[in-house]
């Protein structure tokens, strides 16, 4: 795995309103059917756990986590295309998993396109497993694409 140059300072912090433009720009560069600026704003307003990864002071990735009733849902996790394959996605996923555990989450879920092999490999590495398939969940250029629903147990019942 390629790692960032040692001189790159990388931090993860809570997303702020002033980050929304950068986050929306990364989203548009990353997906054919991106979330709107308003969706990110609404996630912040709803109190979801929203974080950004900064590389040398610039937003280079983000993640959105919803927590309720002992469960969590990773709604979005994305790295700026120019900074992929540097371990930043894994760092953000580790941060999100830490935040879920500290919120007493028992199980965490996410949806991912089966065609997103890099994301599937990362989630499998971190112990996620497929629990369902959502047919025609994602918009695609030719109709719709299914979603693989993945889960990971964080706290086992005693």
What keywords describe this structure?
158 residues, 7-stranded mixed β-sheet, 4 helices, 7 strands, alpha+beta, Aminopeptidase, 28% helix
Can you walk through the features of this model?
The structure is a single chain. This protein is α+β, with helices and mostly antiparallel strands and 158 residues long. It has a single domain (10-153), classed as Aminopeptidase. 28% of the residues lie in helices and 37% in strands. The protein has helices at residues 20-30, 37-45, 88-102, 117-125; strands at 10-14, 49-55, 58-68, 71-79, 107-112, 129-139, 144-153. It has a 7-stranded mixed beta sheet with strand order 1-2-3-4-5-7-6, sandwiched between helices. The N and C termini lie far apart (37 Å).
CATH superfamily membership: Gcn5-related N-acetyltransferase (GNAT)
Mean pLDDT: 92
Into which percentage range does the β-strand content fall? Answer: 35-45%
- CATH hierarchy, class: Alpha Beta
Distance between the termini: 37 Å
Determine the CATH topology. Aminopeptidase
Task: Output the number of helix runs.
Answer: 4
Low-confidence segments, given as residue ranges, are none
Strand order of the largest sheet: 1-2-3-4-5-7-6
What spatial form do the alpha-carbon principal axes imply? globular
| Classification by helices and strands | alpha+beta
Which architecture name does CATH use? 3-Layer(aba) Sandwich
Percent helix range? 25-40%
> How many domains in all?
1
Number of strands: 7
Order of helices and strands: EHHEEEHEHEE
Radius of gyration: 15 Å
Q: Largest sheet at a glance?
A: 7 strands, mixed
């Amino acid at each position: 795995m390629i790692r960032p140059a040692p001189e790159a300072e990388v931090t993860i912090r809570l997303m702020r309103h002033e980050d929304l433009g950068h986050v929306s720009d990364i989203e548009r560069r990353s997906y054919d059917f991106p979330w709107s600026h308003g969706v990110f704003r609404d996630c912040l307003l709803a109190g979801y756990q929203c974080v950004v990864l900064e590389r040398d002071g610039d937003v280079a990735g983000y993640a959105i986590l919803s927590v309720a009733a002992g469960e969590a849902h990773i709604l979005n996790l994305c790295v700026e295309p120019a900074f992929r394959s540097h371990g930043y996605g894994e760092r953000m996923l580790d941060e999100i998993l830490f935040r879920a555990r500290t919120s007493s989450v028992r199980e965490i879920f996410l949806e991912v396109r089966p065609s997103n092999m890099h994301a599937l490999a990362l989630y499998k590495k971190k112990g996620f497993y497929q629990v369902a398939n959502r047919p025609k969940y994602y918009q695609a250029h030719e109709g719709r694409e299914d979603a693989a629903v993945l889960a990971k147990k964080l706290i086992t019942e005693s």
